Amino acid sequence: MPTVENLMLPTNRLAVIGCGNLNRSDDGIGVVVAQRLKQWLNDAPCDGVAVFDAGTGGMDVMFQARGATSLIIVDACVSGSQPGSIFKLPGHELTNRPEPGYSLHDFRWDHALYTGQKIFGDAFPRDVTVYLVEAASVSLGVQLSPVVSTAVDQVVNCIKEHIGQMMRVPRQDSFAAETTQAESVSPSEGPRIQIRRGNLYLEASVYKKYLAGLESVILLRQQDKLLILPVRHAAAGGLLLKVRNPQGDRVVHAREFLRDQGLDEQEEWTLRVQWNSRSAALVAEWPSSR
């Protein structure tokens, strides 16, 4: 059985994330930059550098950036400036707290910067740079305008230069020095959770050891793993950890999440969980249908 250590989320010195919509002309600049950089890295791999195409998904930005030391985001903007203008800004100037709501469609990368720092703390990059390129057109279309296409070349070259400089500097970030190991327990021992009737149940001992004082969590499926992510600031949202009884057992109402993942509400599972300090999450094997 693989250990939790082998299933940790990737940790990179640098994550580059391109955002935008390829079907909206110049709005796709971030995606095009990401594609160009991926092709370049395929030909000349750089250890510790990851490039992602997040499209228009702000939630994807939050989880792809997690674990990186530094983050670069590339996107289009419409500010009334000269088309093709390039703006390089520190991420903290663009961080934006999301409005309360139920739709992830409105959750953008600026919201991801705010929420990721609140949820993941030190596991989320603080060194954030944002490249914004003024669009000439964001109407339906799959081609970049000539002036924006030229700006793509400039942004790609700037990021390549940054990566080149980074690779010449010895790695000194905390992730390189830290050795994270899963808790040493036999398969028949250790803390457990239960899933039944659309709910996730945690015993008081599990809550007190790993989630004490917290009011909510985020549930995430990553391949064949279930991650239970602590939410350390109530404003960041998540699913409530409700008190079940005087003993302090907790329940998370997760029917919608479990249904979306194809789990039958009539089935029940008891899962062993382990704490992964690198991922800052409780991790369990994803339940399989009987």
UniProtKB/TrEMBL annotation:
InterPro entries: Pept_HybD-like_dom_sf, Peptidase_A31. It comes from Nitrospira moscoviensis. One of its GO terms (molecular function) is aspartic-type endopeptidase activity. Pfam families: HycI. This is Putative hydrogenase maturation protease (Modular protein). Belongs to the peptidase A31 family. GO terms for biological process: protein processing. Keywords: Aspartyl protease, Hydrolase, Protease.
